[in-house]
Amino acid sequence: MELLKRFKEGDVDAFEALFRQFQGDVYGWIVQIVRDRGVAEDLTIETFWRIYKARTRFDTEGAFGSWARRIATNLAIDHTRRRRLGQELPSDLPSPEVPDSALRRETRQKIESAFRRLPPKLQVAATLALIEERSYEEIALALGKPTGAIRTRVFRAIRQLRKQLERMGVKPQ
Amino acid sequence: MTGDEEIERLLKDVFPSADKELQRDLWPAMLRKLEAPKATLSWFDWALIVALASWILFYPEGILQLLYQL
Fold first, then answer.
1. Under a CB-based contact definition with an 8 Å cutoff, are residues A49 and B30 in contact?
2. Which chain A residues have any C-beta within 8 angstroms of a chain B C-beta?
3. CB of A37 within 8 A of CB of B23?
4. What is the pTM of this model?
5. What is the least distance, in Å, from the CA of B28 to any CA of chain A?
6. Which domains occur in chain A, in start order?
7. Span A72-89, pLDDT tens digits
């Protein structure tokens, strides 16, 4: 609590202590959404920069980690929105091995393309819930939305993805 | 397997779970950002702004000429 008070007063040492304590968590959360290590590092720094600038508004009774994660999520959504406009696909993370080539390259590209075309809010909710298997409660907290809203987003993401894939000639069961 | 589960499986096949481990300490980069000088206007910039504002105030037709030159 003392640390948070000192941070709020602009003490850089207190900010450094908080940074070192939470940088891993913030990075880990962002990289799941943006799926690019370099971008995730940049957004982690931007998250803490915004935290530092907004320190006077921080409620020292609240949880620093949740506050940081919410700012990080918003930044990651903004990045996803910009990337969608530019249709830039992240290539930093390795592709999984497909031993039996059940998913051919073309099909994989279609799925990737269809997923990246989802509206950013749906894309982020689906990434966290379906790919990273984060709980709806955790996602809801990070997005500042009710759990039901997150379930709806994931449901809509699946529905839109299915339609998009069918248009592309990929037919899930 | 339902259609929803199939979509989920396809996504997991295409997008591997991200490695969440931070590879390096980001504090030095954060510190550089904190210590970076803020963009400020020099006295010359202010003088130009004042001169331009005065010119437009006393000679509004000048806006058209200025736009034409741009």
1. yes
2. 12, 16, 19-20, 23-24, 27-29, 31-32, 35, 37, 41, 44-45, 48-49, 52, 93-96, 98, 102-103, 108, 111-112, 115, 126-127, 130-133, 158, 161-162, 165, 172-173
3. yes
4. 0.77
5. 10
6. 1-90 (1.10.1740.10), 103-173 (1.10.10.10)
7. 999 999 999 988 776 655
